[in-house]
Design goal:
314 residues; alpha/beta; D-Maltodextrin-Binding Protein, domain 2; nine-stranded mixed sheet; 2 domains
Length: 314
């Protein structure tokens, strides 16, 4: 009897694996608004991923609650590899840390398929603000405290936490966090000086806005300057953002292996690599099997900041 049950369970697992391997459609959930970097990366990778999997990959935006709505949707999906989410440290790991009462998912709810790319962020100010460096910016906020604000695409994302770090470290108590459903609307409001600042990955859009004077670069979150953009003031701002694809934990290993191989192959296609570099998120060259270790180290960094600044439930 036990042997028959064992065989039946084995057959179910094999059938599930075959179903996922031959799925007609794979959903790639984007938990933020269309038009921003995350959405662009998903739509860049999806066609190549579809080729590698020999199936259809449909990109679908499910926005709200700092990306947690779309991410929670994938956490509730069947563990068959047919529903993926594009995520980062904010949506996958940090949001649950900041909100202990949140029960939609936690850091153990997902496993990484592969990391797409990443890079340092740049703090930029509205072109209308009379400041070209950090010292001038802080002085401006001291004289105009009501003007101090920063935009982010979600609670727990690097742009949010870096703003909290800036506020804490330099005592800008009046600085207000303005939350958006993605970076696209955030950029629009910073350009229009409805919000003063934002941290975002450096790419062609930001470069163009800087060259036309609509944005002013303050510093890059790296130890070295980025072209004419100043290096970070100290190591507390040495941060690199990243984006990756994830599936729900419990996805069968053969399916996960197939997805990881397809994703790694897609990201390494020359045309994709070129576009990733152009968008400010060059490939991280981290093997899919090593992605979790990279993510764990990154999460520890943000956990330290969250605890030091006492940001839980704020």
């Amino acid at each position: 009897m036990k042997m028959r049950i064992k065989k039946l369970l084995t057959a179910v697992v094999v059938a599930s694996t075959m179903l996922a391997a031959n799925a007609e459609t794979v959903k790639l959930i984007v938990p933020v608004a269309p038009g921003g970097l995350v959405d662009n990366l998903a739509r860049l990778v999806a066609p190549e991923l579809a080729k590698k999997l020999n199936t259809t990959v449909v990109v679908e935006n499910k926005v709200g609650a700092s990306g947690s709505i779309g991410t929670a949707f994938v956490a509730d999906a069947l563990a068959n590899g047919q529903t993926l989410v594009i995520g980062n440290s904010g949506t996958i790991n940090v949001y649950p840390l900041l909100n202990p009462s949140f029960n939609g998912y936690n850091s153990k709810s997902f496993v990484p398929v592969c990391l797409i790319g990443g890079g340092p962020l740049v703090l930029t100010a509205s072109g209308e603000i009379p400041a070209t460096n950090l010292k001038e910016l802080l002085q401006y906020f001291k004289e105009n405290p009501k003007a101090a604000s920063w935009a982010s695409p979600g609670v727990g994302t690097p742009p949010h936490l870096l703003g909290e770090q800036l506020k804490f470290q330099y005592g800008v108590d009046s600085m207000v966090h303005i939350l958006y459903k993605g970076m696209a609307p955030a950029v629009s409001d910073v350009i229009g000086n409805r919000v003063s600042l934002m941290f975002d990955l450096y790419g062609p859009q930001m470069a163009g806005l800087i060259s036309t004077g609509k944005l002013k670069p303050i510093f890059v979150t790296d130890s070295k300057p980025l072209g004419n953009i100043s290096a970070a003031p100290d190591a507390s701002f040495h941060v690199r953002g990243w984006q990756g694809l994830f599936v729900v934990a419990g996805t069968p290993e053969p399916v996960l292996t197939k997805l990881r191989s397809a994703c790694e192959s897609a990201v390494n296609e020359p045309v994709i690599k070129e576009q990733l570099v152009t968008q400010g998120t060059p490939p991280l060259n981290i093997k899919p099997g090593d992605a979790q270790t990279y993510i764990d180290v990154d999460t520890k960094r943000w956990t330290t900041i969250i605890n030091r600044l006492d940001l839980k439930n704020k």
